[in-house]
Amino acid sequence: MPNRLAHSASLYLRKHADNPIDWWPWCEEALERAAQENKPIFLSVGYSSCHWCTVMEGEAFSNSEIAKYMNAQYIPIKVDREERPDIDSIYMQAVQAMTGQGGWPLNMFLSPGDLVPFYGGTYFPEEPKYGRPGFLQVLEAIRSFYDTEKEKLDTQKEKLSGHLQSSTVLNPIGDLQPELLSKGIAKNTTVLINKMPGPSFPMMPYATIALHGSRFSTSEQEQAQQACRQRGLDLALGGIYDHVAGGFHRYTVDPTWTVPHFEKMLYDNGQIVEYLANLWSTGVEEPAFKRAIAVTVAWLQREMTAEAGYFYAAQDADNFVTTADIEPEEGRFYTWTDSELTHLLTPEEYAAMAEIFNLSVQGNFEDGLTVLQRQQPGVISETVEEALQKLFQVRYGDRPESLKTFPPATHNQVAKTHPWPGRIPPVTDTKMIVAWNSLMISGLARAAAVFQQPDYLALATKAASFILDQQWSEGRLHRVNYDGEIAVIAQSEDYALLIKAFLDLHQACQSLAVGQASRWLEAAQTTQAEFDEHLWAVEGGGYFNTGSEISEELLIRERSWLDNATPAANGVAIANLIRLSLFCDRTEYLSQAEQALQTFGQVMDSSTQACPSLFVALDWYFHHTSIRTSVDLASTYLPTAVYSPSSEVPPGALGLVCQGFSCLEPAMTMAGLHQQISDSLTRHQV
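^ thats the sequence. predicted structure below, dont judge the formating
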C-alpha cells in the first residue's frame, strides 16, 4: 500500500511512495508527532537523479524488516533537496562536521522538538558491506544510544548545535582592499590548476573567478589563461559531454574526464554554456566550444523544454535496457560496445571516429562499453558528424534534424511502457526550479550575444517570461512549478540567480537589438525590491537563505556564502547590486553591495577557497565600469562592465567609458576605446 508520499508533486518523494517505510514529508504534523511520541526523527534528503539515492531506495528503504523497526522506533521524514535547499544546507553542514564529508543521500538522526542532529551519514547499505554496517544495525544502535546515553546525547547535541549556530555569526571588516581580491583570485585559480586524483567536477564558480583573474597582467597570468582554456577543453572534449546528442553530465568518476556519472543537471549545463561563451569571447575561439554549445542547446530544446517554455530539472543516470528489466542500469543510454559501433558504422566512419575518439575493443567503461571522449580539439569532419548522427538515430529512432522534440519519460513506468523508437531513455524530472532555469537563461543569453544567435535568446526569453508570468502568488516569487502548480516560496538562490538572468537578458537584448531590453531591467529592479524586503539582513547585511515565515521552523537561519556545484546566493546577489547601480544610476545599490562585502570580508579572508563567487562580486566592486557606445561589444569579454549600445555619445566619439563616479575623455578611435575599457577593468593592481 502506498505511503503518504504517493500524493507528493516531487518525483523524488514519489519514488519512495511504495516503500514499506511510513514516510512523512517535512511538515509541522510530522515534527509535532515526533515530539509528542518522543521518537527521534530519521531525516533522509536526496534528489531524483541521484544514483546512490536510487540504490538506497531499492535496498534498505524497500526492506520490510528495516521498515518495521523504522516505523516503530522513529518518525521517518523524506525531503527533496531541490525543493528545500535550506533544510539540506543545514544538515549537510552537520554531517560534514561529524564525518568530514558529505553527499547524497543525506541521512540524519534528529532529536525531536529541537531538531538538533546527533548522528548522520550518507549511503547505508542494506547488509554490511563496503566496510559499513547494515542499516538495521545502525537503526538499532542509534535508538539504543538515544534511550540509554542521555548525557553523551546531550553533549553531542550541544557540540553540533554550537557548531551550526557559530556558522551564522559573521564578523564584518572595515575597508575593502584590492589585496583581498588578489588573494581570492590567486587561491581560487589554483583549484583549477592543481590536478587532483579522484573524480573531476566542472567547478564552474572556480572557473568563473579564474577567467575574471586571467585578464590581469601578473606573473601567473599565462598559467591562469591556460588553466581556463584547459577547463574548457576538458568539458567540451571529455566524456562528461554527450558528443552524440548534447548536454553535460554531472561529473566524471576519474581524473581524466573519461567516464561520467551520467545524470544531466540543468544547473551544470547553464553554467557551462555561459563559461564556454565567455571563454570564446576572450579570444579562445576553439571550434569544439561552439559545437558543444550548439548541440547542448539542441538537446535543451528537444528534451528539456516544456511546451510552456520553462526548462526541466534533470535527467537520471540510469535507464532500462529492456522492458523486462527490474532495475535500470547506469549509463546504458549513452554507451556503446565495439561490436555495436562496427555494425552501425561503415569502415570509413569507424576509422574516422577512431582517430578522434578513444575507441577500443575492451572499451573504457564496465562490461566492455565505451564512453565517447575526444582526443584532440578542432573541427569535426563531415564523416565523423555523419557517424554521430547514426548513433543518435539508434538512441532516438530518428535523425537529429528531424527530431525537434522528444517526450520525457516522467517515471519508470512510462520509461518501460512507452513505445520508444530507439533506446529506452532515462527518466526526466520535469519540475521547474527558478534558480536552475535562471542559470540556463543566463547561459543562453550570453551565448546568444557572443555568437549572435537570436534563437538562443528566444529560448531564454520564453523561459524567463514563463517565470515572470507564472511564478508569483500573493506577491511572492515561488521556487518550483509542477506542471502548472507552483510550490515553495523562493529562497535566496532563486532571487539572486533570477535577477542575474534578467540583467543578462537585458544586456543580450541590447546586443541583438531586440526590443524587450527595458522589460528585463524593470523585472530585475522589481524582483530586487522583493528580495530586499524579505531576505535582506537589516542587521549586518547580506541575504538570508529564506524569509522569516519559513525560517521559524528551521534550526538556524543561514546567509549562504559557500559555493558548491552552483554559485552561492550572496556572491551572485552582491554582483547584481553593483550591476543595478550602473544600469540604473542608483548609488544606494552600490552602498548595499559594499555593506554586504564587508559583512563577508572575514570569511573571504579566512576561507578564501570556499567562496569564489564572493570574489567575483568583489571584482565587480573594484572594477565596475559603464560603457556607452555606438560600437558592438557583444562578443567582447567584459567581466565587470555593463554597456549600452547608443548613438548618444559626444560628436565624433565612438564611446564614453565611466568608472566609479567619474567618466573618462570620450574615446575617438576603436583603439582608444578598447584601451580605456582595458584600463578601467584593471585599474586596481591585483
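The chain is about 50% helix and 10% strand.
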